[in-house]
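#struct-queue
[09:14] JT: dropping the first one here, sequence first, then the C-alpha cells:
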Amino acid sequence: MITAGGDNLEEVQQAVTETEIAAKAAQSAIGEARIYLNAKQAAVKRYESDKVRTMAATELAKLQQQLQEAQNKLNPLKVVRQDFLQRQAAKKVADEILELLTPAELDCDRAEEASNLLAGVGLSKELLQQAELALKRAADQVAHCGKVVAQKKAQATDVVLAEIEKCEDRIKTAEGRLAQLRNNHKEAAERVTCDTLLKEATEKLQAVQEAVSRAADAEGPFLMGVEELPLEETMGTVKACETAATAANTQASVCRMFVATKLVEAKRFSPKPSQETQARLRDLQKQLESYVRKLGDLKKATAERKAKALMRGAESYVAEAEVLTKRMAEAASIFEDDNKLCEASSAEIRAAADETQKAEQVAVAAIVEARKFITQRQIESKGRDASVEVSAELIKYQTRVSTAQTEVARWRKLASTCEQRLAAKRAVEEAKGKVASAEESVKQVSEMVKALDGEESGGEDAVKAAETAANECQATVKTMVRYLETQSRAQNAARDELAKLQTSMKEIQEQLEHSLAAMRTRAEQQVVKGLVAESEARVVEAEESVRKVSDAEAPFLIDGDVPSEQAVAALTELENSAAAAHTVVGGTKTFIAMKRLAARRLSESATTACNKDLDNLQARLDGLSKKLTDIRKGMSERKHTKVKREVMAKITDLEQLVEAAKEATKSLVDGGADTKEVDNKAAREKAAAAQSKAVATLDTTRKLAVQRQQDVKASSTDAAALTDLTKMLDQLNRFQQELDRQQGLLRDQEHRFVATRLLSEAIAEVEGLEKRMEALGQLATPLVADQKDDLLASVWLEEIIDALRRHMALKALSKEDMFRAMGGQDGRLNEAKFTGFITEFPALCEQQDSLFTQDELKAAFKRAGGEAAGDLTLEQFCEHFRRRFVVTATVSMTDNIAIKGGKTLRKVDPNEIMEALEEPAQDEVLGIVRVRAKAESDGKEGYVTISGNRGTVYLKPYSAHTALEKKVEQSLQELTEAINDAFKHVDKKVDELRTAKAGPLVEAKAELSKCRPRVTKVQYIQSALKKKVAEAQKKLTAGIDAERKRRQEVVERRSAQSMIDENTAAVNSLEERVGKCVPTAEALVKSCGADQESPAAAMEAAERELQATLEAVDKGHTRLKVHLDQIKASMKGPFSEARSALVKLKVRLGSFESRCQKQVAAIKAARSKLEAAA
C-alpha cells in the first residue's frame, strides 16, 4: 500500500501510521510471548521426568523458533516510517534544487542573447553594461545553485546524495556556457576601451593646441614695433610668456605620456582592435610633435628677450653701487695715513668718522640691492632653459659687486681703528708704572734671601716670610708679563714701546729666579736629612728581628738529639721568627728603594749626597739578608727529613693495597667466560672495591706529596729535598699505571659481559620479526592472489542469499522449506535446479541490482559449496543463512536489549566474530539498534549495539574475505610498530656504544649494526606486502563496482527502451490521426463546404475531431512530461539517450498541436463567413 500510494500522501501516511501501530502491537505481543515462553522453559527444567522434560523443551523450542521467525518478519516493518521519510526528503531536496537550477538556466539564455547583441555595429558602453549585468545575474544564480548543491550534498544521506549528484552535470554545463560568454564580453570590452582612449587622446591634443596658441598670443607686445620697452614692462611680458609656455609644455607632456601609455595598453588587446588603435595613436603623436616644435621656438625667443632685459637691469644696479663706494673712500681717506690721524684734532676725526658711516650705509644698501637682483636672476637662469651667455655676464656683475663690497669693508675697518690708536698711548704709560712696581718687589725679595744665608739655620718665621714674599712677587711678575703680551697683541700703534717694557721685565724675572733657586737649595738639604734619618730607624728594626731569629735557632746548634715535641715547637717558633724577620727585612729594602725614588725629585747635588748615605744603610741590610738566608737553609733541611718519613709511610700502605687489587683482578680474569653469572658478578664487585680503595689511597698520598713539594719550593732551594719528593711522585705514578692496567682489565670483562647480553637480545628480537613476517605473508596469501572472479562470486551469492532471506521472511518459510522449494531432494540441490529457480525467482527479478547471467549463477553456486561433489547440501545451504557480524570498535555486551538497567556481561573487542541469534531490534529508550548475538571465541551470548546514536558503527556484516582483511590489516599495523621498536632498540644500543673505541663493545657495535639491514629487509617485505594488499583490495572494489554498474545500466537501458517504445507508439498513432483529420479540415476550409450537403454540420464534425485530437496530444504531452521528470536528473547513460529521444517526440507533438490549432481557427473563421453569408 505504501509503495503503490504514489503521490497520494494522505493515503501513504495513513498506511505508514497503521503499519507502525500494527508493528508495535505485534512487537508487544512477541515480547509477552517470549516472556511467557522463558517462564515455561524455566518451569520445565524443574520437571523430574527426563522424557517429559525433553518433550516439553522440544515443543517450547519449536515455539521459540516460530516466535523468532515472526520477529524476523516484523523487523523490516518497524523502520517503515524512516524509509518513507528518507524517500520524501530526497524528493524534496531534488525539487528545491530544480527550482533554483531552472531559473539559472533561463538567465544563462538571457545572458547569451545579450552577448549576441555585442557582435553588432552599434556597440556601446550601455550595451556592454547590460550584457555584463545579465552575465553577472546568471553567474550569481548558477553560483548560488552550486553552493546550495554543495551544502545539501555535505548534509545528505545516501538516498538524497544520489538525487543531488544528478543535478551537478547540468550546473557544470551552465558554468561552461558562462565561461564562453565571459570571453566574448572581454573582446567587446576591448573595443569599447579602444574608442574611449582614442577620444581622450584627441581631447588632450586639442588642449595642447589651445595652450600653444595662448603662448603665441602672450608675446604680442614685443611684436608691435617698439625696439626697447621699459624694464618693468619687459619683465612682466616675459613672465606672462614663460607662464603660458610652461602651461603649454605641461599639457604637451601630459598628452605625450598619455599617448605612450595607451600605446602600450593597446598592444595587450586582440590583434584587430590593437592595430587600429595603435595607428590612430601614432597619427596623434605626429601632430603633438609639431605643436612641441612650435612651442620650442616661442620659448627660445622669450629667453633671448629676457636675457637682454636682465643685463640692462644688472648694469644699472652695479654702476650705482660702484659710485657710492667711491664716495665712501673719499670720506674715509683721513684714516688711511697714521701721521695725518695723529695731527688731526678730535673734532676732525669725529666728523670724518660720521661722514664715513653715512656713506657706508648708502653704499651697503646699494650693494645689497645689486647682489639681491643678481642672485635672483642667477637662480632663475638655472632652469632647464638656462643660457650660458647670461650666466657668464651675471658672474661678471657678481664679481664687480664683490669688489665694491671688499672696498667698503676695508674703509670701514680703517675708520673703526681710530679709537684704538688713541687708547694705545694711555696703555703704554700705565704699563711703565706697573713695571717699576714689580722691579721694587724683586729687590725686596733678594734682600730677604741674603738675610737667610747669613744665619746658620734660619728662623722659621724668617723662612716663611721670605717664601711668602717670593710667591707674591713671582705672581706679580707673571701677571705683568701676561699683561704686556696682551697689550702688545692688542695695541698695534704702541707695539715698539711695549716691546721695550717686555725686555725690562725679562731682566727682572731672571733676578727673581736667582733668589728662588737659592731658597730651593736650602730646602732640599733639609729634605735629605729627613730621608736618611727615617731609613736608619728601619735598618735598626731589621737588625733586631734578625737577632731574634738567631736566638730561636740556638736549640738546634747544641750537640745531641732534641726530643720530638721540643723539636716541633722549636721548629715552629723558628719558622715564625724567620718569616717575621724576612718580612721586616723585605719591607726595609722596599722603604729604602722608595726613598731613593723620592731623592730623584731633588736637584742633582742633593740626590748624590742622599744616595751615598742610603748605600751605607743598604750594605748593612744586605748583611742581615745573608745571615737570615743561612738560618732558613738549615731549617729547610730539618723540615725535609720529617716530610720524607711521612710520605714514605703512606707509600708503604699504598703498595699493599695495590697488590690486593692486583690479586682480585687476576682471579677475575683467570675465571674467563665460563664462570657463572653470579660468581662473575661477585668477582667483578670484589675487584672493583679493591681498586677503588687503592685509587682513593693513591689520590690522598699524591696530594700530600704535591703539597709538600710546593712547600719545599716556596720555603727553600734545597735540590736534594726536591729530588726525593720527585722520586716519590714517580713511584706513585708507577702505582697509578698498575691500577690503570687493572681497571682496564676489569672494564674489558664488564664490556664483554654487556656485549654478549646486548647481542643475544637484539638477535632474538630480529629473528622474532622475521618469523612474524613469514607468518603474515602466509596469512595474506589469499588476499594478494588473483581471485577476482571468486570474490565476485561471493558478492553475487550474498545478493542471492539476501533476496532469499527477504522472501523467506515475507512467506514465513524456514531454511528447509526454502531448500525444498528450490528443488532440493534428499538433502542435496544440483546446479541446474539452483540456476533455474534463481532465474525465474520473482522476488529476485524485482530487484534492479540482481540480474545475473547463467555464468554468474554457476559461479555463485560453486562459491556456495557445490563444487566438491557437484551438489549443494542442506547443511551448506543453511550455513549461508547464518547472520554474522565482525566487531569494528570496542562495545559492551549486556543481558538485556535495553542498555539502561542492563548488566554488562563482557567487553567485545575489535575483529571478534559475532553470530546473530535474533533479528536486530531497537532500544525504545535510546533509539539505537541492537541484536542478540553469540561470540564465537567463547560462546558468550548477549545484546550488542550495531550502531550508536551518533553514527558510530560497532558491528559490520561478516564475510570470510572481510574478516581476513581486518586480520591482515591489524597484523600489518602490529608488525609496523614492532619494526619501529626494533629500529629504535638497535639505534639506541649502537648510539650507547658510539663512544667505545676498542674491545668487546666495538665488536658488539659492529654485530648490532648488522642487525639493522635485517630489520630493514623485514620492513621492505612488509611494505611490499602492504602495497600488494592495498592493490588487491582496490582491484576487487573496482571489479565489484564495475559489475554493479553494468547490471544497473542493463536495467536502466530496459526501462529507457520501454519509455521510448511506449511514447513512440503513442506519437505514431497520433501522427496517423492528425494525418487524417487535418487534410479533411483543410479541404473544408478551402471549399467552404461547397462539396458537402450540410457545410455547417461537416465543419462542426471536423472541429470536434480536431478538438479530440488536441486532447489526445495533450495527454501525450502529459505522458512525456511524467517520463521526462523521472529521468531529468540523469546526465549520461541510457536515460540521457532516452531523454533526447523523448524530446524529439515532444517536438513532434508540438507540431501536431500547432497544425490542429491552426485548422481549428481556420474552421471557425470559415463557419463565421458561412453564417454571415447565410
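[09:21] JT: and here's the second one, same format:
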Amino acid sequence: MSPARSSSPGPSLAQYPGSRASYASPSRQSPQAQIPQPKQQPTPNTSKLQRTQMPVIPAVFPELEELSYVGDWCRVILEEKLTVGVDRLNKYSLSQLEKLNSDKRALKTFVKGLTSVQEFTQLRDEVLHSNMGIAKTTLGHESELRELHQAVEEQRAELRAAQQSLAEKQARQQRIVAVREVLCCGRHSSRPNRLRDMATPRLLALLALCSAALTCVYVADVVRTKQLESKCDMTWSWPVYSAVTWRGAPQHASYGLVRVDMKLERQALGGVPVLFVPGHMGSFKQARSLSRHLWDADPQLFDVFALDFREEPTGLSGDLVAAQAAFLNDAVRSILREYKRQRKSSSSSSAQLAVPDSVVVVAHSMGGVVARAAELLPNYKRRSIQHVVALGVPYEAPSFPFDAEMNALYERMQASKAANEVVYVSVAGGHKDTLVQTSLTGVDTVANPSRAVSVLASAIPKVHTPVDHFCLLWCHELLKVVAESLYKAVDLQTRRLGSDPSVRLAVAKEVLFGGQDGGDVADSEIAENVSLHRRYVQDGYYPGEYAGYAMILPQFMTNLLRTRFFTMIVIMYALALQIFYAQVAQWQSRFNLQSSSSPQDLSQDNFPSFTSMLHPTAHAPAFLRNSATVVSDALHGRSFLGLSKTSTAATAVLTLVAAAVAGYFGYSKLVSDTEGFVALGTAVADVIILYAYALGLLYAVTRLFSLLQRFFISPIVSVLNNVTDRLSLRRWMIIAIILGVVQLIGQIKGSSMESSKVLALAILASFAVFFVYLLALGGSLDGTSDQLRMKRSLFAVFCLSVFPWAGKVAFFAGIVRWPHSELSNDLLVEGGSYIIILTLFTYIIGLSLDCMIPLPPTAFFGASSGLDAASVYGKSSGNSGTSVKITAENCPKCIYEDGGPGAILEEYSDRTTSRIVAGKTGEVVYIGPTFRVVSCDCVYRFKNSRDFCDFCVRSCRLCGGGNGNFQEAAKYKDFLEESKVDLAMHALVPMVFQICAAVQATYGLYRAHMSFYFTPGCVLALIIYHIVLRHPIEARRIKNKQRKKTTKKKKSSNKAKSKSTAASTTTTSTTTSSTTTTTTTTSETTSRNKKKKKRKSATSSTSSASSPLIEEVSTSS
C-alpha cells in the first residue's frame, strides 16, 4: 500500500460542534469538503509562474468561515509581488537565463532571493499562526458544550447497545430460518461444496490408481494364461478341399459350400452328412481336424462339408449372422437334395441305403449361433438339423454385446427354444479360452434342458486339460471324443443318424462322461455328472482348478472381469450421459436471479468440467443424494432441519409402505431363500465394483486423453485447420471431398456399379465424415472455457457410443467387397436410417464447434434495459478465454462507499479518483471513491426494510441485486410466469439425457446395444435445443459476431492481395526505370535532410529559451 493510503487513524472530530457523526479519513475526503479555489486573473505576460494556483487554506472549523477575507487579502498582495518579480525576470538577457539554466544551484538561490517569494512565505506563516490562535480561543469557549455532547453520546451508546442486542437476536432467528431453507432446497451448501472440491481429486485419483492397477494385473493374468502350455496333441491330416459344383448348389455373391475329404477326393455321397460352420473370422479349412477324426472312425461313414464365409467378422454384426444363417439353410437343402438325386441315379446295390433327412452340424464359436438362428428363418426346412455339436459357442449372450441386431437375434433365440428333436452338445474350452467365457456356453436358454448338455473340457475324463478358443478345432483328445460320440449315434445298418433324440443324447453323455478305460457308466453317475458339469460351466472352473493356475487375481474377480468387462463400458456411457445432464442443468441454473438470503456458491463454474463432475456426489441423482443425507443424519443422530413437513411425512409413509409390503410377502420367506438372497447380494456387489472400476478408469482415460490432445490431437487438428483456411475450404466442401474419395476408392477395388455397393459406400463415407468431425471436436481449442468443457463432455458421449457402429461398418464393408445382386427394401431402409443418424451426429458436432449451447431464458431477464446476464456473459467470455463471475466485489454497477453498521468495505478506486498534494508538508488528499461495500448484513440486523442501507436495497441484474431487493424479485417472478413454457422446454433437454442414463443404468445395464438408440435421441434433443430454443437476442448476437469474423477475413485477404499486386508493380517499374529513380531519390533525400535540420534548430532555440524556467519555477520548488 502506498504511504498516501496508510491505515493510521486520523484525529477524531466528533467532539467539535458542526462536525460529522462518523469520521471520514483524509483519503476519502469528498470534493465538497474542499474550499473552492479562486480563479487566476490573466496578465499580459503568459508564463507558468503567473498561472500557478495559490495554496488552499483549509477551513478546519465552520466558525473560521468569517475569516475568508484573509485569503482574498493575501491574494491581492501576492499578485502585486508577483508582477514585480516578473518585471525583474524580464530585465535579464537570454544569455544570463541560459547560464542560470545550466547551473541549478544558482537558479535555486536566485529564486529564493526574489522578494516576492520571500514575502509570500512570510505572509503564509503569519496567516497559519493567526488561524491556530483563533482555533485555540474557539476551543476554550466551547468546553461547556463539549460536556453536554459527552452526556448525550453516553445515552446514545446505551440505546445503540440495546438495539444491537435486539438486532442480533432477530438476525440469529433469521439465520436459522435461512439454514432450514438452504437444507430443504439443496443440502450441499458452500462449505460442503468446498469440502467436495477438496475431496474430488483425492477420491478420483485413488480410484484411478486402483483401476489402473487392477487393469494391469488382469492383463498380466491374461498373458500368463496364454503362456500356459497346452497338453493337447496336434491332429495331423491330409485334407482335400473341393468346391461343390453340382446342380442345385447354393448360389451366393460371397459365400460358398466346400467338401472336405481325406487323402482322396470322393465324388459319390454315401454316408451321414456333417456340416462344419466356422465362427468369427473363421475359415472352412478349420474342418480338416474334424474330418480326420471322422475318417479314422470310418472312412466311408461320414461326408464332411464346410461353409466358406470369407472370414467375415460374424461376432460384430447380427446382419452377418442372419445372412450366414440363410445361406446355411440353402446349403442344407442342397446337400439333402443331392443325396436324393444320387439315389435315383445309382445302382441297385447302393439303392438299399437310406437317404438322410437331416444334417449333423458341428459349429465353432459364432457358427453355433448361426446354426441356431437358421432354425428361426423362413427358408428353414423342418427337421433338417437334428444334432448340433457346439465348440465354444456363446449361447447365453454375445461376446460383443453392442450390436442391436445381434441382441434382437438372441432375444428371438431365447424366446423360442429349439424343437425337441434337436440335440445340443456344448463343449466349453475352460480357463484358457479368453475370447468366449465358459459361463456363456450354457445351452439351457436356447434349448430344452432335457435335450441338451453342457460340458467343461478340463473336466472331461478323456481330455482333462483346458483348451483355448482355437485349440478347440485341433485338440486331438477333444476331437477324438466328439468323433466317437457322433460315430456311436449313427445306425450302422442304415447308415443314418439315430432318429430318437433321447438315445443320441444318452450316447453323447456316456462318451463324454465315461472313464478313460472306456467302461460303462451307470445312469445315476451320468445324471450326477450332468448336474456337476452344468455347475462347472456356470462357475467357469471345477473345484480346485483355478488354484492350480497361480493367478494373481482371485477367482470371483477374474470371472467378473471376463464376463462383465463390457458392462463397465455401459456404466461409463451412462455416467457420460448423467454428467452431461448435470452440466447442462447447472448451466441453466447459473443465470437465475440471486435474490435469496443465501445464494449459491458463485465460485463454481458456469459449465463445470467433465472431471469435476466425476465425483459421485456431483453426478448422483437428487433423490439418491437426499436419501443418503437422510440416512446419514439418522445414523449420526441429527435432527431433520433441512426437511420440510411434507418430505418428512413422505419419508414416514414410504417406510410404512415398505414395512407393510415386507410383512405381506413374508420376511421369513425372504430370509429362508438363501440362494436368492445371496444371488441378489452378489449382483449388487458386482454392480458396485464395476461402478468404482468404471469411475476410476474413466478418470484415468480422461487424464490420458488430455495429454494426447495437448501433444498429438490438437497439433494435427490445427494443421488441418490451417490447410483448410489457406485453401478457403468450407465444411460442405470437405464433406463432398470425403464422399468423393470414398466412392473413388470403392470403385477402384471393383468396377461394378450395383446399387447395394453404392449404398454401402455412402454409409462408409458418412461414417468417415463423422469420424473426422469427432476428431476435430476432440482436438479443438477454440472458444470459451465453458464451450471447451461442453465439447469435451460431448466428445466423451460420442466416443462411448461408437462401439455399436463397429458391426455396421463391418457389414457394409463386406457388401462393398461382394455386392448383392439386388437391393432389398429392408437393406435400403436400414442403410438410409444409418446415413440420417450419422448426418445428425455430424451436424450437432458442427454446431458445437461454432457456438455454445443456448443460454437459458433467465439469462435474458432485463434485456430491455441492457442489464441482462447474457450480455455480460457474452462480453466476459468473448474477450477472454475464461468466464468472469459477476459478484458484488467486481460488479461495475454496484459501487457504494457507505453501508450499514455491519458492512464490509474493500479498497477501490476508479477514473474519478484523483490524488492531490497540498500544504507545505506534502499532505496527500484523495478526491472521489476510495472504498466500496462488498457485503452487508442489514437483512439480519434490521426487521424493517426502511432501515436497510443503499447497498442492501440496490437493484442490480449483473450480480443478482441486493438481499432485500423485493421489487426486483417481484419482477423476476412475473418474468418466470411469462416464460413458463420456455423454461419447461429448456429443462426437457437435459432431462432427456438423464432419462436415457437412468434406463441404461437399470434396464439396459446388461443390454449394451441400447446406446445405439439413446445417442440419436439425445442428439436430436440437442439439435432442437440449438435451433428452436435459442433466444432471438442470442441468435442475433451470434450472427453479428460471425459477420464481423467474415469481414475481418475478407479485409485480411484483400490486404494480402493488394500487397502482392503492389509488390509486383513496384518490381516491374524498378526494372524499367532504374536510372531515373536513383536521381530523384537522392534529390528528395537531400531536401528532406535540409528541412529536418531547420526544424531541429528552431525547436532547440525555442525550448532553450522558455522550457527550463517553466519547469524549475513551480510550487513544489
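[09:30] RK: nice, looked through the second one.
[09:31] RK: The CA atoms of residues 677 and 683 lie 10 Å apart.
[09:31] JT: good to know. The radius of gyration is 46 Å.
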